[in-house]
Every structure is written in structure tokens, then in C-alpha cells.
Amino acid sequence: MKAYVFPGQGAQFSGMGLDLYNQSDIAKELFDSANSILGFKITEIMFNGSAEDLKQTKVTQPAIFLHSVILAKMLGDNFKPQMVAGHSLGEFSALVSTGVISFEDGLKLVSKRAIAMQKACDIQKSTMAAVLGLEDSIVEKVCDSIDGVVVAANYNCPGQLVISGEINAINEACEKLKENGARRALVLPVGGAFHSPLMNPAKEELEKAINTTTFHKPSCPIYQNVSASAVMDDNKIKTNLISQLTSPVRWTHTIQQMIKDGATEFIEVGPGKVLQGLVKKINRESEVSSATIF
User: Fold this and answer.
1) What's the confidence (pLDDT) of residue 198?
2) Does the annotation count 88 as an active-site position?
């Protein structure tokens, strides 16, 4: 079975989407529409901006979303997913690509999400750290032992877990994790504690926007970050999407469940190859590739 997966923040690169824009009238129309919806020329930043320009929160998330969704649309009849999943932000791309929400609504939600997350970051300085070479249970136990907010945020693959929280709590956790045998516990250059309770202000803001957006039943099962299981009910999809900002991304469990449910081939739709690498680390037998129109 073919499973399509959609990348999240960090997959952006300078020049992204330009080949799609030049290749297709559909892509050109959608990119131009995105400029109008967002109120600024995101295409200018995507096609010609520097890596630093693309790091702006209000740019990064819509840029990755646009690249992924437009590529999926350009695949046309070749895009026949039997199951889909998206990593964090990528879940919005997956929802648009399977008809749960419209392109316009998806872009508006992603833009609101990015701005709300930035506001939450400004309220309280916080960060994330990558932990390598430890079992998940040990990382969770160490986080539980720390005073202050620090939680498991991204279960990316076995032996690779990202933690999220207050700066002092993260620093203390990193030291303890090294003492417990972590190969690395490295603070990441991010602006805030994504997928942690510190994102509650953003969650409240996004919830209002999600609740006024029309959701439909997907064309195939979507495996959401919060549950790591197949969901077809549009109301359940909405509930999980609201919970996503303050809950961990259960990517390891998601891929394992998709394989259990019959996935044999994983196709990454969007910039980069990060998810292909993670899938291979979760299950070496899985076939992985990038979606391409050329």
C-alpha cells in the first residue's frame, strides 16, 4: 500500500517552489492566490529569499505547506494515497491533499498557527533539544524528574526524541540525560517550546479558527500526530488538530501503525527528505521516495 507523508518545519530551502511555479499553470495560479490570501508576496521570499528570510515564522510554515500541497495537486491522477500522515505542520498539508479542508482555509489556518505560535514564544522564552541514543522511557522519566516545564515533544524515530520546555528545565534535562547515557542532548536553534504546555496560548487562538472552518471526511485514512492511528471522522480530525500544538508528535508510533495497517511504500510530498530518513530508521524494509512530477 502507498502511504504519502508530508514534512514539517525545518524542510525549507532558498528557491523552494520555483520549479513548480515555472512548470505548471495550476501551480502559478495557487502561488499567486497564496500571495493574495497572506497579504504579502511569499513567492518572492520562497524563490529569491535567503535562508534567514525563510526562517521567519510567518514565512516558514506557509512556505512548506504551499510547496507540499501544490506538489500534491500537480501529481494529478498519480496522487492516489491509500493512507496519509504529516509531521506537525505537515498534518495541514495532508488534510488539504485529502479534501478535508480547502486550499484557502488550509493556508489561512497555517498562517494563523504560525503567528499564534510566535506570540506564545514571545510570552515566555523557551526552547527544544534533540536527544540521541536513549530509549523513550528513559527520556520521559528524566523529564518527569525535572522541576519546571520539560516534556517529550517529537518521537521522531527509535533513539531520536526531541524535548520541549522552559530554558532552565531543558538545560537541566540535557545534563541529566547525558548522565543517563545519551549520545547527545543538544539544544536546538528554535524560538520556542513547540508541542508543549507552553503553546497553550497559541492553542486557544488556533482552536477558534479551526472551529469556524469547514471540515470534510478525508478521501483516505489520515494518521494524526496526537493519536498515531487511522482517523476518518471529520469531527475527530478537528479535535486532534486542536490538541496537536500542546501534544507530542508521535511519528515513530504513526509509521509503525501505518506499516501494521499495510503500508509498504512511503512517498514524501514536499521539500527535503527528512521523513524518508526517519521512516528508514523506524523500519529498514520500507520503500521510500520523493514525490516528483518530472
Assistant:
1) 96
2) yes
Integer Cα distance of 130 and 264 in angstroms = 28
For domain 126-187, the CATH class is: alpha beta
148 vs 56: CA distance, rounded Å: 28
Across the range 168-190, mean pLDDT stands at 95
CATH class, range 2-122+197-290: alpha beta
- For the question of residue 196 being annotated catalytic, the response is no
In this predicted model, what pLDDT tens digit does every residue of 99-135 receive, in sequence order? 999 999 999 999 999 999 999 999 988 999 999 999 9
Catalytic entry in 88, 93, 111, 196: 88
Domain ranges of the chain: 2-122+197-290, 126-187
As a whole number, mean pLDDT of residues 247-265 equals 98
Average pLDDT of span 45-63: 91
Average pLDDT on 243-268 reads 97
Nearest-angstrom CA–CA distance, 29 and 119: 31
Catalytic hit among 126, 195, 247, 253: 195
Identity of residue 244: Q
